[in-house]
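Q: what does this look like with S-adenosylmethionine bound?
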Amino acid sequence: MNAAIEKGFEFSDRDFRFIRTMVSEKTGIELAEHKKNMVYSRLVRRIRTLNIGGFREYCEILSSDSSGSELINFVNAITTNVTRFFREEHHFHYLRDVVVKELTEQKPEKIRIWSAGCSVGMEAYSIAMTMLSAMPELAYKDFKILATDIDTEVLGKGAAATYPSEVLKDIPQEYHRKYLETSDDGETVTVTDELRKFVTFKRMNFLDHWPVKGQFQVIFCRNVVIYFNKEVQRAIFDKFADRMVDNGCLCIGHSENLFNVSTRFRSVGTTIYRKIA
Ligand SMILES: C[S@@+](CC[C@H](N)C(=O)[O-])C[C@H]1O[C@@H](n2cnc3c(N)ncnc32)[C@H](O)[C@@H]1O
């Protein structure tokens, strides 16, 4: 037998139950029964890195992890970070055509946008490109984009702002030269410093303390709460509403909705809401 084929680890139903409970308590994500294989493949890397005997031992490490250091790696391994530049592009059209027009008329002192559950930052930089291109005077105003996530690895990638050059296919042509620099070997692109300076990355778990102050004109929270239970979703959208200006704009993911979750927003388009209370 090929020596390179690695031996699998036993993953009992009991250990899977423990992990599902841990994930739900620590992140809000409710893992379905059929996700056992996915959980195995995500966590087996931690077991190999730690060079331990298997899932039983890993669960023991998690339950006695008083420093929380393995918990960070565990959460990083378990989260799904799929994202794309200009994903669900109608949100960016709405920003460009409606929100920018209002901000130009209202001239608020500060403009604050939040990409909540930002993954590797593509969403935050898509917002930055859209806003600065449609409203160049923002460069001289008090304009900031906050990008938060529970996963420390994706936050590092967001701050580094370097992506494989395939991402160019998702980004409107007119932004390529304006906001991106291609590496000498053509393999990667990096967001320019002029754009990056508007985006701040911070770790924030929706289930913990919310150290976020300020009144946001726009919040993007897309494809994040989809696996959270309704009760957790209710608490999250309530806290978003508390941190938004009147009539602030909220964009959520394509398979999410606020039905039975929040009465503090009204729908103004596909997965676009405005704060009413
Ligand atoms: C699928 S990505 C969505 C990225 C981006 N919003 C988009 O739509 O392209 C979901 C992100 O939510 C983050 N996330 C999951 N649970 C979270 C929690 N409890 N607090 C903060 N972020 C969380 C994950 O780490 C992941 O990066």
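The domain at 13-78 is CATH 1.10.155.10 (Chemotaxis Receptor Methyltransferase Cher; domain 1). The longest strand covers residues 244-252.
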